């Protein structure tokens, strides 16, 4: 079936280092991908998105990379800060713009 | 900047009781969604409304009903609550019908069924 999975459920990073969170997807028809950040007790917060006609997109301290050949998505966070501690989810549109396919999430832990 | 507002934030029910979760958005989005999130898991879509006047089942619709009251409001009803419905419920909205657009979420309703 369709699925979006994450390679690492927990990632620990030293404060100030860069973080890379990975995501694999299986539906080659997906043409839109989104990264969300979820802090404890809150709803998912949109971080950055990318369309399938792009390989890379940059935001403020975040970069998303898309490799359609191997169906891989990654989120890079530069100079990780304590406020980046959260669970990060990738999501893809699959066959429908309305029914996102969600990964299980990666918990990012920042070490002081 | 209210965005998506959900009420209540917390609720405890007994098995068999009924309950309606409320959601309102002020972003003039056409589409609205209801998800559940179980501990340590991702989100699963219960129902969605692509536009005012339409609703469709998602991945896990059994035991739930929805109403798209108007463009702003989308409610989720549990007619006879079961312990398996203990979860955190999130409402979201988007302009998905306008092309690729992200969904924006409320902060959830934490529901416990005893």
Summarize the structure in words:
The complex is a heterodimer of chains A (112) and B (114). Chain A has strands spanning 4-5, 10-14, 19-25, 32-38, 45-51, 56-58, 62-67, 72-77, 86-92, 101-102, 106-111. Chain A is mainly β. Helix content of chain B is 0%, strand content 49%. Chain B is globular and about 40 Å long. Chain B contains no helices and 11 strands. Chain B starts with a strand and ends with a strand. In chain B, a hairpin with a 5-residue loop joins strand 4 (31-37) and strand 5 (43-49). The mean pLDDT of chain B is 94. The chains are: A mainly beta (112), B mainly beta (114). The interface between A and B is medium-sized, with 22 and 28 residues.
Rg value of chain B: 13 Å
Structural class designation of chain B = mainly beta
Unreliably modeled segments of chain A: none
Number of strands of chain B: 11
Outline of the structure:
The complex is a heterodimer of chains A (112) and B (114). In chain A, 0% of the residues lie in helices and 52% in strands.
Describe the protein's topology.
The complex is a heterodimer of chains A (112) and B (114).
Chain A: E1 4-5, E2 10-14, E3 19-25, E4 32-38, E5 45-51, E6 56-58, E7 62-67, E8 72-77, E9 86-92, E10 101-102, E11 106-111
Parallel strand pairs in A: 2-11
Antiparallel strand pairs in A: 1-3, 3-8, 4-5, 4-9, 6-7, 7-8, 9-10, 9-11
Chain B: E1 4-7, E2 10-13, E3 19-25, E4 31-37, E5 43-49, E6 56-57, E7 64-68, E8 74-78, E9 87-94, E10 104-105, E11 109-113
């Amino acid at each position: 079936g369709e699925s979006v999975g994450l390679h690492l459920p927990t990632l620990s990073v030293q404060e100030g280092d860069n973080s890379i969170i990975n995501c694999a997807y299986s539906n080659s028809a997906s043409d839109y991908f989104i990264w969300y950040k979820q802090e404890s007790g809150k709803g998912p917060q949109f971080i950055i998105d990318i369309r399938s006609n792009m390989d890379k997109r940059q935001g403020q301290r975040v970069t998303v990379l898309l490799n359609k050949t191997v169906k891989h998505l990654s989120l890079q966070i530069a100079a990780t800060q304590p406020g980046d501690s959260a669970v990060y989810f990738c999501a893809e549109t699959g066959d429908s713009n309305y029914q996102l396919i969600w990964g299980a999430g990666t918990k990012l832990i920042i070490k002081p | 900047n209210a965005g998506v507002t959900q009420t209540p934030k917390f609720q405890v029910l007994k098995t068999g009781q009924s309950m309606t979760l409320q959601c309102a958005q002020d972003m003039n989005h056409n589409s609205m969604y209801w998800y559940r999130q179980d501990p340590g898991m991702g989100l699963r879509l219960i129902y969605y409304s692509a536009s005012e006047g339409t609703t469709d089942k998602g991945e896990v619709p059994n035991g739930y009903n929805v109403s798209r009251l108007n463009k702003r409001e989308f409610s989720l009803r549990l007619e006879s609550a079961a312990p398996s419905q203990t979860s955190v419920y999130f409402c979201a909205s988007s302009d998905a019908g306008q092309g690729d657009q992200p969904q924006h979420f409320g902060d959830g309703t934490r529901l416990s069924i005893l």
